[in-house]
Amino acid sequence: MRIRDLFSKGTPVFSFEFFPPKTDEGEEKLMATVQRLKELEPSFVSVTKTGGKPAEKTIELTARLKHEVGVEAMAHMTCATAGRTEMHRIFDMIRDAAIENVLPLRGDPPADQPNFVRPPDGFGYANELVQFIRERGYTFCLAGAAYPEKHPQAPSLEVDLRNLKNKVDAGVDVLITQMFYRNADYFAFVERARALGIMVPIVAGIMPITNVGQIERIAKLSGAAIPTELQQDLDRTRNDEAGAREVGITYAIGQCRELLQRGAPGIHFYTLNQSPATSAILRALRRDYA
To answer: Per the residue annotation, which of 17, 100, 128, 149 is the catalytic one?
Structure first.
C-alpha cells in the first residue's frame, strides 16, 4: 500500500521509525521489538539510511518488515555521496523488493571528509533526488522531511520553506516533520506551509523521551527546543531513568493528543529501536479512538 492512500480514511495515521542495527544480534532484537509494536497496528514503519550503512542494508531490512513481519514499510534513501547511475541501481533494487514507499533525503557528506566533493553526476538537494525518481518513472509514494523549527543549515524560516515547496513540487506526496516538543511550532509551520501552497499531509514527528542526556544531545543536533517546564521536569529526573521515562511518556501523550485534536493527520514516532515508551504512548492514544 502507498502511504499517501492512508490519509483518506479519516483516522489518525500512526507510524514508527527504526534504524538498521550494526550486528545480526541487534537486527534480531529489532525484529522482536517490531513484533511487539505490531500489536498496536501501526499504519506503516520506516527504516533510516545513514552514510555509514550501505543502501542494501536499509532495503533488506525494509523488505523483511514488509514481507516477513507483515507491516507496510518505507525505506529512507540518501544521495549525498552517490551519483545518478548509483541511485538508479538502488531504486531498481527497491522496486524489485516490492517496496512501494520511499523517503528521499540528501543526507550528510562523510564526517571524516571535510573537503568532500559530491560526484559529478550527484545531487545537491533532496528535491533533485525527488525529481530524478519521478523523471525515471518510478511509481513509489514519496515522503519528505520537514523542519517546523527550520533546518539547521537553512539561513531563515522563509528560505527553508521555499526549499520545502520545491521538494513538494518535484513530487513529494507526504511530509514528516523532524522531532519537536513545542506544538505551537508545528501549528505555525503548517499554517506557513499552507499559505505557500503546500497542501500534502504534514505528519508530526515525535521522539519519546527516555533518557535526559540522550534527548538533550539529539535535540541540540536537530535544532529542537525543549520547553522550560519540560526541561525543569527532566532536570529533576536526570539521575532517575524510570522517572525520566515517565515524564517523557506523560508529556508525549499530552502533546500527541493536542496535535491530533487540532488537525494533525498522524504521528510518526522516532523509536530509537525501542518499544516500551512508544507502546505506552500509542496505547493511550488508541483508547481515545476506541
So the answer is: 17
The model carries a pTM of: 0.95
124 burial class (0-12, 13-18, 19+ CB within 10 angstroms)? exposed
Give the structural domain span for 121. Answer: 12-288
282 closest CA partner among 8, 23, 12: 12
Position 6 in a domain: no
Please list the residues that pair with 47 across neighbouring strands: 18, 75
Give the model confidence (pLDDT) of 104-162 as tens digits.
999 877 677 777 778 889 898 999 999 999 999 999 999 999 999 999 889 999 999 99
* Residue 7 in domain: no
Is residue 68 in some structural domain? yes
Burial class of residue 192 in the structure, from the number of CB atoms within 10 Å of its CB (0-12 exposed, 13-18 middle, 19+ buried): middle
Cα 121 vs. chain centroid, distance in angstroms? 27
Report the number of secondary-structure helices (H) and strands (E) in the chain: 10, 8
The CATH number for 267's domain is 3.20.20.220
Provide the 8-state DSSP code for 67: I
Domains in the chain, number: 1
Q: Which amino acid, 106?
A: R
72 in active site: no
Domain annotation covers residue 61: yes
